[in-house]
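[job 0417] fold request received: Acyl-CoA dehydrogenase type 2 domain
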Amino acid sequence: MTTTTPPVPATTARQRLAPVLERIAAGAVQREQDHELPRAQVRELLDAGLGRLRLPVEEGGEGLDLVEFADLLVDLAAADSNLPQVFRGHIAWVEQVLSLPAGEHRARWARRIAAGELVGNAWSEVGDGVTGRQQTLVTTRAGRTTVSGRKYYTTGTIYADWTDATARRLADDGTSEVVTVLVPVRAAGTTVSDDWDGFGQQLTGTGTLVLDDVEVDPDDVSPFTARFRYQTALYQLVLLAVQAGIAAAVERDTGREVRARTRSYTHGLAPLARHDAQVLSVAGEISSIAFTARALVRAAAQAVQAAADTAHRPGTEADRAANVEAEIRTAQAQVVLCESVPRAATLLFDTLGASGTSRARALDRHWRNARTVASHNPVIYKQRIVGDWSVNGTEPPFVWDVGTHASVDPAAVRAQEGGATR
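[job 0417] inference complete; emitting structure tokens
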């Protein structure tokens, strides 16, 4: 009698998602050229279970670890680099749910995630807001809890059922605390705009969210200090997966374009580009970057998974060490990939002639997308942080913010420079 070993969850998920990724990749260039938001593709991914892969089986998910999950995100980014970033806020919220103790609050959110509901992100604010002081406010009056404010860089929210927002909660004595609040995107008073004007990752829905006295569930308002500790490393891991997917797409497109090329140069080394040693040398460098990018994602994911494994032992030395490791490994990978992946996207054009710059091919999207992703969480600061850890053993910061420093007068800067404050 023979027995058959059932497939592991990651294999099952990969097989189920494979045809979805093929369809996504087939339309990626056209969506880019038409600026067509991938609403149908987001829905198809949710229906195929992407949003619940990290949930335990007993809560309606498939129990993938972060290494398995990150590998799937790389494949998704190779098909369309916008899509893993669309899911970035959702991925973080799922980790927050996994960090919650057993109870009705966790069970309610697990049911929503398992049912295919999507959570976006709304943490950032632009303008003259002072660092560390959210302008978005949560208030409770007459038994009604509401949130009001204006957010930008709200990646994924335009596609989502909910958005994970940061705000200040005002107390009756005039004090306040930073909180996170889950906001229903389709509730009265909520407006989401597709006004992200970056030159890359244009379909991520990274635009403006306006909240005008939007009612929220008080149970969905929590102190920011209650967030899972490895969240910054996890957010960076998703961006690393996007970079690795772009590198994989560059390798794929390089091979396809070079194989199809029949024109060659009289001072080249072969009648066909696919046999030209210099062209193959460039293709080899691109392939090596793609391989290294995926390997770095896997290594970083292992470190983040280790932090997830210790999350229910806060305050222990094991948890502290695991979180330091996760932050450093994701930063190290970021330092390398922010340089190498845009380079691969540039090298692609060295394997082709001027026809490679045709807008119809849209090969420039790889560089634009990689450079845009590399602009998140400025790498120059990560280099310093890694260096300080390497030389001095200094722990990295786990939470940071961006805004106007309290000592800066934005109006004075604008008057002096004659421009808008960014």
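[job 0417] notes: Residues 137-226 form a domain with the Butyryl-CoA Dehydrogenase, subunit A; domain 2 fold (CATH 2.40.110.10). The mean pLDDT is 93.
[job 0417] exit 0
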